[in-house]
Amino acid sequence: MTPKSKTRLVIILLLLLVAVEFSGGWRRRRRRRVCHVVHCAWGPWGSWGGCTAPCGNSGTRTRTRGVAHHAQCGGAGCAGPSSQTEPCNRFCNNGGTPYASHCACEGDYWNTCCQSACSPISHCASLSCTHGSNQQCVRCDGDFGVLGQAYHNLGTSCRKACSWREDSNSCYPGTCASGVQSCTCAPGFGGPHCRTVLQGPAFHDCSYELTGNNGIATSHGSCSRSSEDGDAAHINMAHVERIRVRWTATFQPPNLPAPPVYVKSMALGIIEGTIAVSLQNETDMTASATTTCSTAIGRGTADVPEQGVFTCEEDISVEWTASNGQGIQILLMATAGGNVHLYDRDDNSTVKVKYFTALQANHTADIIFGIEAPSPEGTEGRTDIPWVLYGGLAAGVVLFLIITVAVCCCCCCRKGQTNTGQTPSPNCNNAYSHDIYDNAGGASTASGDSYNYYLRPLPPTPGNVPPKRVNVPPKTLEKNTEYEEVDDRYQALKPRNTDYQGLKPRGHDYQGLKPH
Predict the structure, then answer these.
(1) Per-residue pLDDT averaged across 406-413, rounded?
(2) Strand partners, 153
(3) Which residues are connected by disulfide bridges in this protein (predicted)?
(4) How many beta carbons lie within 10 A of that of residue 231, not counting itself?
(5) Which of 70, 269, 374, 443 could be 305's S-S partner, Cβ–Cβ 3.0 to 4.6 Å?
(6) Residues 504-516 as b or e (16 or more Cβ within 10 Å = b)
(7) Which residues contact 487 (CB under 8 A, 6 or more apart)?
(8) Is the dihedral of CA 261, 264, 269, 273 positive or negative?
(9) 347-356 pLDDT, tens per residue?
(10) Enclosing H/E stretch for 411
(11) What integer best gives the mean pLDDT of the chain?
């Protein structure tokens, strides 16, 4: 190929290249004039990452996302963050208190987030522990501080205390130092909660007054001494219409311990009094009457017991006809009891009332119908009865002596006149003449229609020897009955089993004469 040919070939190739370049630029410029706008678009969010804390109040977690389409032809860019962060695990289990990355546990739980339970303690309201077996009781059930506790906190256990609860023991009046098992009741009390009275009331003064015989006769005395001590009063009244009794008693237990904080108040005393009277033989009761002490001073009830002196005075109407050997028994009954007021701490300290199991004490006194001389030993065992029986007996003896002496004097004078016609002896007025002494033991001798009376002389009484007192059992006074001696000085007053020998004057019948 010639040089010219080569030159022409090069020129042609250059022209082709220029043409091709020109043609591509034109096409590109053409395409630019028809471009579509594309905006930026985010892709989906990724999964959340792990939390920075297991519990507490500061844990967070994060997630991210990428661009799905970038902006074109002037499209908008992607808006919003490419990552998100949110709180997580901000809690505490079972009432724990949250901190940055852990919890402070309360109650029966432990561990970082209070998710593990402590080993339980019976009757413990709040526990604490750092692992499963070192539990300690923070507060026992029924703990009201200074107002009282239903359980004593021993750390690893709760012991039941004496308290206001029904399943416990209030233990008052008493002391409870170390739990319900240590309850010690005060003297005179026992049973559950120490609310059983074991010691009865104390009886003090007692007096009676009997009215009878159509309201004419009265007899009064003391009934303070018990018939169980062998003491009895004696009266001589055939018909009893009214019995009046007055007595006093107290129930005041001494040296009671101070009450616990759950006891508001306690009231002890006599809550009831009763008088019962009965007419009795030796073996059975023939009549009775009972009355409640309605006129008691400070009349007692279980809600308001008489804490001072309980005084009862009552009239009992009867219609009793008694005979010798029968008796009236006076029975006094006093019941001791009361109540205690407890604060119920489980119910906003409302007050509930509990009552004591009451105890009745009895006092008996006997009044015997008949004659019985006072005890020879001073005044021990005597009652305040007016001894009307002995006054009547003395009056009867004096009257009998006066009549007998007068009859004997008369007979002495008549003897001297009728038998011998002599003038009566100057000593015929003396009932204790030598003739009478000589015939003291003989029977009466009749001369004509006249009767001679002989009276046994009185033996001399030593000046320094007191009269001998003997007991005369109650008997019905009848004719032809021998009586025991009332006094050694009155030996002449012993009728024999005859129709009152020597006491039959002519034309008169003295068989009805009886000692008064």
Answers:
(1) 65
(2) 158
(3) 185-194
(4) 18
(5) 269
(6) beeeeeeeeeeee
(7) 467, 468, 469
(8) negative
(9) 999 999 999 9
(10) helix 388-418
(11) 75
pLDDT of residue 73: 86
Q: How far is CA 382 from the centre of its chain?
A: 36
Neighbours of 286 (CB within 10 A): 11
Tell me which amino acid residue 68 is.
A
Q: Compute the distance between CA of residue 89 and CA of residue 87 in angstroms, rounded to an integer.
A: 7
Q: How many CB atoms lie within 10 A of CB 15?
A: 10
Nearest to residue 252, comparing CAs of 331, 334, 175, 330? 334
For the beta carbon of residue 291, count every other beta carbon within 10 angstroms.
Answer: 18
Q: How far apart are CA 379 and CA 396, in angstroms?
A: 26
Residue 389 is inside which H or E element, if any? helix 388-418
Given a contact cutoff of 8 angstroms between Cβ atoms, the answer to whether 500 and 515 are in contact is no
Of 102, 57, 65, the residue nearest 82 (C-alpha): 65
The region of weakest confidence among 237-241, 307-311, 454-458 is 454-458
Position 446 pLDDT exceeds 90 = no
Cα separations (Å) of 40 from 37, 74, 82, 385?
10, 10, 13, 132
Would you place residue 32 in the very low, low, confident or very high pLDDT band (cuts 50, 70, 90)? low
104's CB contacts (< 8 A; 6+ apart) are 92, 96, 97
Residue 268: which pLDDT band, with cuts at 50, 70 and 90? Answer: very high
- Encode pLDDT of 308-347 as tens digits: 999 999 999 999 888 877 889 999 999 999 999 999 999 9
Compute CA 294 distance to the chain's CA centroid, rounded to the nearest angstrom: 21
Amino acid 432: pLDDT: 32
DSSP 200-232: -PEEEEEEEEEEETTTTEEEEEE--S-GGGT-E
C-alpha dihedral (234, 237, 240, 242), degrees to nearest 10:
-70
* Distance (Å, whole) CA 248 – CA 275: 12
Counted residue by residue, the chain has a size of 516
Res 439: pLDDT: 35
In three-state secondary structure terms, 254 is: coil
Q: Which residues pair with 136 in a beta bridge?
A: 128
Q: Report all structural domains of the chain as residue ranges with CATH numbers, in order of start.
A: 109-160 (no CATH), 196-369 (2.70.50), 398-493 (no CATH)
Handedness of CA 20, 24, 29, 33 (dihedral sign): positive
**φ/ψ (deg, to 5) at 8:** -65, -40
Structure tokens at 495: 């009728």
